[in-house]
Amino acid sequence: MTCHSSDSTESIDHERRSRTEPQAADSEQRCIATAMRDLKNTGWYWGSLTANEAKEILQDTSEGTFLVRDSTQRDYLFTISAMTSAGPTNLRIEYKDGKFKLDSVVLVKPKLKQFDSVVHLVEHYVQLSRMSCKGRTTLLSPSNSTVQLLLTTPVYTATPSLQHLCRIAINKTTRQIQELPLPNRLKDYLTDYSYNV
Fold it and tell me: Is the model's pTM score more than 0.90?
């Protein structure tokens, strides 16, 4: 039977923690790198745009028009800038423990869904907004002092390629890309961006 002193137990615990902390940091870096890659593929990620520049871009657009940009606040990575019935607004995207979710008031935060990527988050709210516009569902009901946030139409940094638009259309139609009668190279292209927004 082997006995450990409290000093040796503490050193073992410290050693275990020091092994898992770099793994957690690597996992966080991979998650953020994947989120960045997916965002850059969208065409509606604007990078280091300021809130005022986003407001100018959205100024004459219809309600539901949106873009994603880097957040100017240190505690957040990204911000959604969107046109509402009251004008352009900004909504921060929170990142914690490998998941992305919208920033909100404390009472609503636990109810908000979390996503593995920013594009997946945006895709979810675009689908909700489009169903809401068609009357099939309602988003969080706004009170008298709030404005309903819709995300329906992205603002692209440049005109998207026909290939990318086709990829989005195919992804809206099916999630079973591997079963389509297409060459593997084309299937790879379709699955490289598996979102429908």
Answer: no
